[in-house]
Amino acid sequence: MSGRTASLSPPAGAMPPVRHPEAPAPGELLGSHYDQCFGCGGAQPHGLHLEARAGEGVSLTAEFRVKAAHQGAPGLAHGGVLATALDETLGSLNWLLRVIAVTGRLETDFVRPVPVDTVLHLDAHVVAVHGRKIYSSATGRIGGPDGPVAVRATALFIEVKVDHFISHGRDAEIKAALADPDQQRVARAFEVNP
Ligand SMILES: CCCCCCCC(=O)SCCNC(=O)CCNC(=O)[C@H](O)C(C)(C)COP(=O)(O)OP(=O)(O)OC[C@H]1O[C@@H](n2cnc3c(N)ncnc32)[C@H](O)[C@@H]1OP(=O)(O)O
């Protein structure tokens, strides 16, 4: 046993999240942070191509259209793909904090089946921050942004240093990402404050 608490509820002493002064303005598209990202990257033919837009405070909305490549059962989205959409949406929140963080824990409720070709409308916000721990939650609706809830998630992200990626990622991709002449893209690939 690690002795870790499994709770996704912020502990006593957790603080409200603080939006970074240079976070994208509400309504602005965040854009992909890395073109090879399965969640948002344009270079992944079967990826989710999820598009996230900054909201007020430390919140955002995102959309993802379920494609045939995302099926689990015939005509229905795979649950793991839906969890990926939630993970990506929740992970994008950290860009509004300008904190580099990875998912430590993700708890998902699958409320309704999501058919292929459906647009999943996601909204997410950071609930609280406690030291390196970022507590957040997300909801995915179908049939429109105010439609019925199909999926929900709560998550705990843990702040890391950029070395997390450099020391654990495969060499070829790390080198390629660092060699990009566009410093803004390098920063975003690792979600580092440029
Ligand atoms: C825009 C970007 C979108 C990206 C979206 C996608 C995001 C992702 O999917 S990231 C990829 C998936 N995640 C990973 O690969 C992470 C793999 N895990 C790890 O690398 C490590 O376990 C890591 C970094 C999370 C924690 O390790 P480490 O830095 O040594 O932290 P550690 O000291 O053990 O823990 C720090 C705190 O977090 C807590 N914690 C760590 N992991 C967990 C966990 N899984 N569950 C609950 N609590 C946890 C610890 O209890 C500790 O709490 P406290 O400070 O109160 O004692």
UniProtKB/TrEMBL annotation:
<comment type="similarity">
    <text>Belongs to the THEM4/THEM5 thioesterase family.</text>
</comment>
<dbReference type="InterPro" id="IPR006683">
    <property type="entry name" value="Thioestr_dom"/>
</dbReference>
<keyword id="KW-0472">Membrane</keyword>
<dbReference type="InterPro" id="IPR029069">
    <property type="entry name" value="HotDog_dom_sf"/>
</dbReference>
<keyword id="KW-0963">Cytoplasm</keyword>
<keyword id="KW-0053">Apoptosis</keyword>
<keyword id="KW-0443">Lipid metabolism</keyword>
<keyword id="KW-0809">Transit peptide</keyword>
<dbReference type="Pfam" id="PF03061">
    <property type="entry name" value="4HBT"/>
</dbReference>
<keyword id="KW-1003">Cell membrane</keyword>
<keyword id="KW-0276">Fatty acid metabolism</keyword>
<protein>
    <recommendedName>
        <fullName>Acyl-coenzyme A thioesterase THEM4</fullName>
        <ecNumber>3.1.2.2</ecNumber>
    </recommendedName>
</protein>
<dbReference type="InterPro" id="IPR052365">
    <property type="entry name" value="THEM4/THEM5_acyl-CoA_thioest"/>
</dbReference>
<feature type="region of interest" description="Disordered">
    <location>
        <begin position="1"/>
        <end position="26"/>
    </location>
</feature>
<keyword id="KW-0378">Hydrolase</keyword>
<keyword id="KW-0966">Cell projection</keyword>
<feature type="domain" description="Thioesterase">
    <location>
        <begin position="75"/>
        <end position="137"/>
    </location>
</feature>
